[in-house]
Fold Pyrroloquinoline quinone biosynthesis peptide chaperone PqqD.
Amino acid sequence: MDPTQTGTTRTGTGPRPGVGVSGSDRPRLARHVRLTFCRTRQRQTLQLPETVVVLNGSGADILELCDGRHTVAEIVAELGARYRTVPDDEVRQFLTRLVARRYVEISDG
């Protein structure tokens, strides 16, 4: 999944084209997106209208914490506690791509 960056959708502040997520942002799944476990694939998936995105383990772990309450920094810290090393920039890039695709919405912290 490597979408071109067309901008980000942010609640409360309007779009900020070309800007990634910051540590104080609070990501959450967009209203039309559901994180579910697919028994057939034995993996977490994102379900969207007419689309299913199969997630790898780390992507699913990130999105499970995207509830609008956790900041990006808190998500990185939680994953770091679970797995020892979590590259902060990779989590931000992943979330930035999902925001660009409108799978995730961001509110300012």
Observations:
- Helices lie at 57-64, 72-83, 88-100.
